[in-house]
Amino acid sequence: MSVAAYKRIMLKLSGEALMGDDAYGINEEVVSRIVAEIAEVTRLGVQVGVVIGGGNIFRGMKGAASGMDRATADYMGMLATVMNAMALADAFRRAGVEARVQSALRIDQVVEPYIRGRAIRHMEEGRVVIFAAGTGNPFFTTDTAAALRGSEMAAQIVLKATKVDGVYTADPHKDPQAQRYHRISFDEAIGRNLAVMDTTAFALCRDQKLPINVFSIFKAGALKRVVLGEDEGTLVHS
Ligand SMILES: Nc1ncnc2c1ncn2[C@@H]1O[C@H](COP(=O)(O)OP(=O)(O)OP(=O)(O)O)[C@@H](O)[C@H]1O
Ligand SMILES: O=c1ccn([C@@H]2O[C@H](COP(=O)(O)O)[C@@H](O)[C@H]2O)c(=O)[nH]1
Q1: Does residue 71 sit within a domain?
Q2: 108 is in an annotated binding site
Q3: How far is the CA of 117 from the centre of ligand 1 (A)?
Q4: Residue 139, annotated ligand binder?
Q5: Burial degree of 96 (CB within 10 A; 0-12, 13-18, 19+)
Q6: Ligand 2 contacts CB of residue 160 (under 6 A)
Q7: 121-169 pLDDT tens trace
Q8: pLDDT (tens digit, 9 = 90+) per residue, 81-91?
Q9: What whole-number distance in Å separates Cα of residue 119 and Cα of residue 130?
Q10: Residue among 229, 238, 228, 172 at smallest CA distance from 43
Q11: Which atom of ligand 2 is nearest to the CA of 16?
């Protein structure tokens, strides 16, 4: 039987990944496939927290660039992540996996508020906890929320599931010559301004000695490979 390398993980799931090939929003087929991959990992006995992004619906920076007040736009971005979290939780329900959404912004009629002790308890009970609304504060990102919740939940690793298969010397979507790192230290990633994740998230994980693995959510089986400790994506380490 396969043995997981981690007991508890914090998975940062790209919002943009949820739209698949669509121009906007949530592609149900993509969500079901991602949920099936996460469900497989829970069957290995791994406790899973998920921080969901919102880039498929709204990004604060984009709103601010077109003249909106930045904080207002960021709150809208956080609300977008709540919609993604609800879609994800519903897909888990349909797949027969117990999941709970906890939001950093209070919307008690819709989802549970974020309560650390309760989130830990859910995970110990084998429920997937989906952390919505990022950190609950404007001017941050869901990458930072993943670093924060990962630290609070005492996860052993943050897994950034995104559209690229690791950390590159430059953005591979812009520079075809970019080379992928197998491993890279936090200091080097920060020093080289590698924008795959924001500096605040890198710095928090570095300070908490919480490693990050960046991998592609579009590569079938990649999540399980990372969880089994196999060579996949890029490891960012202390
Ligand atoms: N050095 C780099 N290595 C890898 N990817 C990079 C690098 N620099 C920039 N990127 C870009 O960072 C993107 C991933 O981060 P981004 O914040 O855009 O998305 P996400 O966090 O996955 O999604 P969302 O914000 O929708 O939740 C990649 O798709 C890639 O284009
Ligand atoms: O702590 C947070 C997290 C997110 N936001 C806003 O939400 C959007 C979507 O999040 P992504 O990380 O880009 O997927 C983000 O652009 C911010 O506007 C926030 O304000 N605080």
Answers
A1: yes
A2: no
A3: 31
A4: yes
A5: exposed
A6: no
A7: 999 999 999 999 999 999 999 999 999 999 999 999 999 999 999 999 9
A8: 999 999 999 99
A9: 9
A10: 228
A11: 14
Whichever domain contains 187, its CATH number is 3.40.1160.10
Strand order through the sheet with 112-113: 112-113, 99-103, 128-132, 47-52, 8-13, 157-162, 212-216, 234-237, 183-185
Count the helices and strands in the chain (H runs, E runs).
Answer: 8, 9
> What's the ipTM?
0.97
Ligand 1 centroid vs 61 CA: distance in angstroms? 15
200 C-alpha to ligand 2 centroid (Å): 13
149 touches ligand 2 (CB under 6 Å): no
In a domain? residue 2: no
45 is an annotated ligand-binding site residue:
no
Dump pLDDT digits (tens) for 68-78: 999 999 999 99
User: How many structural domains is the chain composed of?
Assistant: 1
Cα–Cα distance measured from residue 49 to residue 124, given in angstroms and rounded to the nearest whole number: 11
Averaged pLDDT, 196-211: 97
- In terms of residue numbers, what domain contains 102? 8-237
Evaluate whether residue 34 is within a structural domain. yes
CA dihedral 94, 104, 121, 235 (to 10 degrees): 80
Cα–Cα distance, 35 to 19 (Å, whole number) = 14
> Is residue 1 in a domain?
no
